[in-house]
Amino acid sequence: MDLLVLTKTGGIFGPIADVLGWIMDALFRFTSAFGVMNIGLCIILFTLVMKLLMFPLTLNQQKSSKLMAVMQPEIQAIQKKYKGKTDNDSMMKMNVETRAVYEKYGTSMTGGCLPLLIQLPVMLALYQVIYKIPAYVGSVRHYFDLIIDKLPAGFATSEVFTNLAETHKLAGMDYSNMDKVVDLLYKLTDKQWGDLAAAFPDITSVATAGGENAIQAINRMQQFFGMNIAYTPLNVLTEFMKGGSGISIIVALIALSIPILSGLTQWYSTKLMTANQPTQQQSAGEGGMGNDMMKSMNVTMPLMSVVFCFTFPLGIGLYWVASSTFQVIQQIGVNEYLKKINIDDLIAKNVAKANKKREKKGLPPTKITMNASETLKKLQEEEQKEEKVREAKLEKAQKTIKESNEYYNQNAKPGSLAAKANMVQKYNEKHSK
Question: How far are the Cα atoms of 117, 192, 350, 351, 353 from residue 357, in angstroms, in the given order?
């Protein structure tokens, strides 16, 4: 049950989430200085800041993908060379030759994965912050603490409080821990706040430093286009279908549009990003299957985000939409930038960086034997030669079959019994000579 609440996460993501929470808190304080206290707006600004901070890693990953598109023919040629050879010696040779290709281009076999490995824990911690706003954003948590201070002793055992806990599937928690109380209060609807205030009138008089009623301030900061970001789109649509008060058709349409926009923007951003990804040229085999799987994932993942978004808090959906929208804008700029990059200059810079690292290790520098276009041309020429050899062998085989058929089917209708008897006779005559 603890997995469903907003209390801070632990483990290796805890410190990262704390730093991200500090950034979110700084943004909330910044907007509050202008009289705007809105968690939804802070999520959008937070997403923008994170995209800007992660941009260098994203750009490096995109450059690696562009470089992989050039390296791919050479790597495929090595894989083709050792295809079907599973002995240890062949596998070692293939690894050595593959590593040599990466070194020639000034990169490594893990170079393209490193930015992703760095981004992964940051992204997982980021979700924790978005999902658990009061746990990480002290400025927001402050308003809930004002309410809790006015709750009487034994409030957790009252009928109203236990009913609210059961409604949000948070019954059985240790509500002597105030973090758990905040977890519940963060999920309350306007009507449920009214029920709590009716049971504990003292909380209605709680005021913020600015003199505003604390409950009203909490409701206002959680509103985004008429929706509470702690709700799920499914909650909003269900209440609308039931004729819930305060939920107009416009609010219901906005709640419906967030999951749809989340899927569409993710699909389009993925489409733009894969424009620079290397593609396998094989129409069959593992390469073809890999491409089909990748295309399927590019469609399946956005569809899954649509489904999940209906049951996640609106804050998560808002983050997904904002993140994908910024990603689309960013990716359009990155794609234009990558089009202008000279691949040979990129290789030269990579090799120069790699040689500095090799120098520190006392290794000789890697030399650029030819530019990328010459390498690709050479590989294409080798493939053309191999293709001509295959065609010559096929032509010779077909000619042999034709001559054999003509020899054995002389003076007889092809396929007839006489032709078959003639074939046996000719065969015996040929081999007796």
Answer: 21, 62, 11, 10, 7
